[in-house]
Automatic annotation (TrEMBL):
It comes from the Bacteria. It is found in: Cell membrane; Membrane. Pfam families: BPD_transp_1. Its main location: membrane. GO terms for biological process: glycine betaine transport; transmembrane transport. It comes from Sediminihabitans luteus. This is Osmoprotectant transport system permease protein. Residues 31-206 form the ABC transmembrane type-1 domain. PROSITE patterns: ABC_TM1 (PS50928). Gene3D superfamilies: MetI-like.
Amino acid sequence: MSTIDDALVWLNDPYNWTGPGGVLELGAEHLRMTAAAVGIAAVLALPLGVWLGHTGRGAGVTILVANSTRAVPTFGIILILATTGLFGNGAAIIAAAVFAFPVILANTFTGVHGVDRDVRDAARGMGMSGLRIVGLVELPLAVPLIAAGLRTTIVQVVATIPLAAVAGGGGLGQIINFGIGNQRYGQVLAGGLIIAALALVIDLLLGLVQRAVTPSYLDAPRGGRRRRRTPQPGPARPVPAGEPGRP
């Protein structure tokens, strides 16, 4: 049989889904690892991004340093951690958190910093403190970009966490790792399809959440401002004889 046929056979075996170490068990572990990595990155990046966006202090240097972490492959970070004795899920979570940090930081900074200065000035003119301006003005206006950053980050981490299996960790990467080790390439393909499908489903769900948390007055699905609908003139009404304008 071909690799595709082997993958279909593997996917249609119920034991591979519900048995010990099956897709459901490994998938749950995969999602827990993703949540841990994104949670660590968000706890660090969100407050820093809000502060930098609000004050503008040292923003360029911080964003540059954060983006420089993208030049280091996630697998390389896992290997570096392995040299310190950290293996398995812990190494993968830390590596994925390092990978996720700059995306969340950049989007948060851009969203808060991009708030119209006139809006800030108006809030100060109303007597708002800096903290209230952040909470009541800047953050609500920055929600679309922050949500987009989190959505992108989560999907990328879902696709990156399978590297944990290389360092002795769990998650859906074990399916691929086991298939490679035993030359079962149909299983390798099946594992890749499952991870891709999981990433697509999560992206779809997060898209719905992003749309729900975005205020309606900021919702511009085509990337521009909402265009006001201009009333169109209706058909001309016949003017009876004898009225002005009637010959």
